[in-house]
Amino acid sequence: MPIYVDQTERAIFLHGPPQRIISLVPSQTELLADLALSDEVVGITKFCVHPQKWFREKTRIGGTKQLNLDLIRQLQPDLIIANQEENEKEQVLALAKDFPVWVSHVDNLKHAYEMMDAIGEMVNRQKQAELLIQTIKENFLQLRHPAAAIDCCYLIWQNPWMTIGCDTFIHHIMDIAGLKNIFADKERYPTISLAEIKERQPSVIILSSEPFPFGPKHIEALQKDFPNTVCLLADGEMFSWYGSRLQYTPAYLQTIIDKLEKKLRR
Questions:
Q1: Where does the chain show beta strands of DSSP type E?
Q2: Which residue from 107, 110, 111, 91 is spatially nearest to 99, judged by alpha carbons?
Q3: With b meaning 16 or more CB within 10 Å and e meaning fewer, what string describes 184-211?
Q4: Cβ within 8 Å of residue 42, ≥6 positions away
Q5: SS3 133
Q6: If exposure means fewest CB atoms within 10 Å of the residue's CB, which of 38, 123, 139, 148 is most exposed?
Q7: pTM (2 d.p.)
């Protein structure tokens, strides 16, 4: 019986390639789709919006932090894929009493590659996973960094304002792109104030499209408090999704870098 160790050092046992998979994480759901596991995946969360066909047709087993445990049990999965940060520990442990639950922990690209490789092995898609990882690595090599690091504040929530610390995947992606996180002295997802942002004088404030749905009206309001700062909306998936979406992240980051350099030269 194959033994697999997840990224939290927990061991799970599988009888063979799983035939009934449930994903509790949007970015990993997309990875499973790109590994051609449409027949095997039987359940996803209500936040697993990619691919759209799966979102419309697959059984939704609740939100990432509010899982419908009874429905999951009814689906009788032979593998559940979770994440340490995105899912609630108590719910994951409850499921682990009855089913194999493989938990990822991704803070950087290295962890992301390890996650993809491990999942590829578990679901009998090793070659596809290896090709995907190679594509992502090659795409990041093409990324052109700004001439000098750009001081940025990355906002993920409003009321209260929240940003990202140095031990997050978003921070890692920003660092790779030459976007300097002005709150790198903090950890995880700290609550901050507009006064703190002003004190640190960022050149750019990035408003993410998720988890809070920032839009043009928020940019307009924030620009009144920061008239000399570039305020920019960004696709949060490109900064925070650590699955197969990473193959598109470098090109997206390049558009952000080019746009910011142009605005900051004015």
A1: 3-5, 11-13, 21-23, 41-44, 59-60, 79-83, 101-104, 150-157, 161-163, 179-181, 191-192, 204-208, 230-234
A2: 91
A3: eebeebeebeeebbeeeebbbbbbbbbe
A4: 20, 21, 22, 58, 59, 75, 77
A5: helix
A6: 148
A7: 0.95
Instruction: Provide the CATH number for the domain formed by 3-105 in this structure.
Output: 3.40.50.1980
Predicted confidence at residue 191, as pLDDT, reads 98
CA distance 266 to 32: 44
pLDDT digits (tens, 9 = 90+) for 125-165: 999 999 999 999 999 999 999 989 999 999 999 999 999 99
Nearest residue to 45 via CA among 70, 72, 26, 71: 26
Encoded amino acid at 192, one letter:
I
End-to-end CA distance of the chain: 63
Delimit the CATH 3.40.50.1980 region(s) of the chain. Answer: 3-105, 150-265
In CATH terms, is domain 150-265 a member of 1.10.10.10?
no
Residue 211, preceding bond cis, omega within 30 degrees? Answer: yes
Which pair of tokens denotes residue 97?
């009493």
Q: Residue 145 has what DSSP assignment? A: P
DSSP readout, 213-244?
A: ---HHHHHHHHHH-TTSEEEEE-HHHHH--SG
